[in-house]
């Protein structure tokens, strides 16, 4: 809880009148403003007091009491950003000031900034280890360490200490938050709810506290209380879009669309004519629920009646754009800007226009508009987020993070900014910080599906299945018909071997009724049977699904694919033929049939189908690549390469064909050509892990210059937490080339174990063992590399491995070859 503002005695507020004649010194002017501020605080006029406190620093930037008073006042008013800034200035000027360090530590904790909490808390512990606030910090740090280490016993021990200290420090937010979090993890929902209610009753009414309460109510299944809480959030934080969105999702999940619409109409009717926000929310809802005519009517009415019709022209353009009238929509926004003076509104229009231009492929135009906005307002959140997305794609992560911090300073609950921050930290090789922001985005969005699923994927990858289940269930309670959440939950239950609940999810998906949901339900059920009863029973179930009179074509194709996977190739080919005969005009079935022929061994029949498809449409997706792969199987490498080149003539931007071209170039020894292709692919989509890995690997393996190594590191540092062998090799080898052999070793050992037939991986490991003065291990790795490569491999790395073997066998150290 924020510390109470220190008020000074009345006697101290009144300073002795100056008796000296002449001009006042800067110090005297500063102190006069300070005394005025204290008087105003005592009189209950904090706004004017803040003005006086700021005036102090015009004359004395190191006025300790003035800055502390301003910091405490800002903290009391809930402006934690400004309070933190003022305290930080104090810490810079007075590094050993204990109260300042404690305040910074507590604020950092309250906004989940663990790095800053650690920095200031550690300093406070040096200054006064026995202070109660410092003891609370030590407990919170131990608690977080236990969570990161998945040590439940240590976590509960830390929480028990927090409970004990709470008896003497009941208002310590750090201790109480620790206890609440522990109760939540131990499923003591009522205990956690009691703790949160205590915080709310004692003035801690920030957004995060309400969010925690909302999550508990949802988990308890008290939907009436959830609705009440959501409506309270909307009333208390009227500018928070996430709260409104959560309430709408709740109404829709409860099959109450009329209440959702009534709620929005209520907000719109109560809004002032110069406040377009609530009416725009209503328009969006009407449009998204299929009431486009009503949405247009509201837009037309607003344009005719509102003093400023521009926001409604803008949303009307947005609806036009979504309806496919892209040129008209862009022209509308440009007309809104024509001749308009710069303002917050014109900047919003420019950002909306930038998004449209980006969607149409005009990135240059989009960037220009964003630059215009930031030139006028360097803190515009929407423009900064667009800019950050581009910076992340360009691997300029530090700049992106700096801009996103500005966004979160102005909009602390911006889930999109938190997600972008996570992407930036992933790119820069800091997965723990990325995960923190993904978790915060889930909270800020009120367990919205997209944010929940994004974080759940990370948790599942880390093996934290129980936490992933908890989050999915929370999200599902607020949106019980969300297909994506259900599918993710069903797959999770299969992984957890909780088959009854996996079947329950499948049944729920099937009740949704749409083809995609039914297909997902079938996949979950078939996999459940496969795991429980074996492949034969699973195939019987799949055949029953495909043979049903109402079976979709997707279900029938799925059966063919399953028969191929299980080796029943005759049945797969016959079923593919039957499906094509039943649907002669379906080109997708041509591909299915060709695949069935290919796995059956009739490569000529498969090739004929592919060539027929390409003759009718050279740009048909994927077929050129499949034909090329088929030709490679037949030993026709030249023909396979020619097919890729012909495919690129028809679709020059197809990433799969470009990737195949790069592979051919690499195979032919044209490393420079391969790097050029991968650079092009990376420029188009730097989020592709495969492209990033291949580019970084080539740069680090075949180029010796420092610029290439630095570029490879910038690209590959995102692999720091990877368990993919090829990426482990890339990351490890780059770390070794950068001189960090200890960092490289575990990655390269794991890669060599998983890729035992790749000679370069063994070579990389051997080089690392040599750098770590482990000659016997190095010799074994070099021997493996040479053995796998064979006598005909003349690559420089293999030649170096051969020379290293001779040197090591003769008992001398291998030559210090270039990395």
TrEMBL record:
SMART domains: TPR. Pfam families: TPR_16, TPR_19, TPR_4. InterPro entries: CellSynth/LPSAsmb/PSIAsmb (IPR051012), TPR-4 (IPR011717), TPR-like_helical_dom_sf (IPR011990), TPR_rpt (IPR019734). SUPFAM superfamilies: TPR-like. Keywords: Repeat, TPR repeat. The keyword Glycosyltransferase does not apply. This is Tetratricopeptide repeat protein.
